[in-house]
Design goal:
By secondary structure, the chain is mainly α. The chain folds into two domains: 139 residues, no CATH class; 118 residues.
Amino acid sequence: MVHQERLEIGEKCFVSGIMAVLATEAGLTVITTGMHFSWLGLLLGITGFCLILLLANRLYAGSQQAKMIALGWIAFQILYAACALYLLVSSAQGPETAKQIGAPAVWPVLLKALVYVFLGWVLVRMPMVRDFFAERRGEIRPHDLPAQTAVIPEPGPALAFTAAQNEAARSLAQFIRLTVGGLITLGVLQILAVVFGLRSTNGQGALVLVQGLLTVVLGLALGAPSNEIRPLASQEAQTKGQLMNALSSLVKFYKLQVVVGLLLGAVTVARFVTTL
């Protein structure tokens, strides 16, 4: 039952991510073209819509090749958004250049970037979506199967948490979810501060924008450990495999945290230098 529920949630999250990108691409292409016509912007919008639409069926079947293509396109969209936002907030001449590449305003660029970041997070960082893809490819994930139907025995006895340990696991997962929400909110507020109040010519606005984006990335990355720790509060999911998944997810997050932390430190130093 737990395994089937994880697959259903994974499928819904994947479909939601795809539909969000398709709706955003279609809607923003029409809106931005009306705000300021740009052949490049129109081409990027049509290409993005058609590419995601073509990849959707292959992704649904669990194709690793389609996943790599989708992640490459997502990376391009994030890089494009970063360049467009830099042009929009860095100088007085930047907005005119941004219009020529299909970015007539900040809000459509931010909206599209956030939707693509969400899709990338769904494809890479959501364990339930990874389980759904593995099931579609016909792979067997023994640690996700109910104990009575597992064909490969657990390498040791099943875990049996006490009531206090169950409450600790539940509290930890809740605390991490609150931290995820706090980091994402902080990052979004920093981005909005640049959009509405910190547009400058000395690079401060661009640096705050990068800081906000990195904070959002850190918050999204922390969502994966939260998803792996939460099942440990349920007795039927208290297996050695699930515990190892939670520990592995935490290790991956801490590695990413080091990289993002170094980048945030570099941005902070750069902001200090530009004020001198």
